[in-house]
Amino acid sequence: MKLSEVIEQVKKEKPNSFGAVHCTLFISEVESMVQEFLKIPSDERIKYIWERDGNRELVAPDPYSALYISYLKGRIDYSNEEYQSYANNQAQFIEDFNEFKSYAVREGKIRRTRESRIMNWW
What we know:
By secondary structure, the protein is mainly alpha-helical. Helix content is 58%, strand content 0%.
């Protein structure tokens, strides 16, 4: 799913006053969580800028890209102080993210890193 598609989908499901630039910041937050789980080194992690990355594919593939939608809806609710709706969307995000994590483990998507030094040799 593309960044612009996530924002458009959320605008349809949950009309709000947040612009694409602001929504991109929220999506970058969750994308950081996804990339951290996949053990992508911090210097290789993607941080989105709307003007440059609007048509860029997000890291989590379909159908697991639903986690971006639930996260963005939750962040919008939290910012608007709609805490009951936030709680519902946060619960949905946790479920979506757990499904993504299961997929990543099952399919071997997590990067394997080697220790650069040996600790506690003896």
